[in-house]
Amino acid sequence: MPPVAVVTDSSADLTDSVLDRHHISVVPLQVVFGHESFRDRIDLKPEEFYRRLGTARELPTTSQPAPADFVCVLRGARAEADEVVAVLLSGTLSGTLSSAQAAVRAGGISNVHVVDSRSASLGVGMLALRGVELAESGWSGAAIARELERVRGQSGMLLTVDRFDHLLRSG
Known about the structure:
171 residues, four-stranded parallel sheet
């Protein structure tokens, strides 16, 4: 049994091959197109998301995973490892982090270290990959969480967009 497993959410935007290669478990966010709701990357693959986005009358929205979704994934990860480090979408952008924290408490899941990435997309993914590197080097879950928080504090992101109207509509 490996000492530490890494879990993230689907906002991390890591490819399936990278997730599989590094044994990273993913909790899917919900993607809502109109009246249809999909589990990100399970019911709605990235290619289909972008196809729908190109023809949608309204922009899709997202919703955080339910705590029960986290309980399932975190229990599975704990069955495979002594500790879990969960690297998640920024708590200021989504309720995903809160759902994970509620799942840990309600599910009575021990040895889970929840890390607020304070980021989105590959900012989350890169921290998750760093967590895997540290786990493979023998670091404890608590030490990995502290290191990821240190790295997060020294990291930044540059974002460019083709159009601002989508950003303005979503706030």
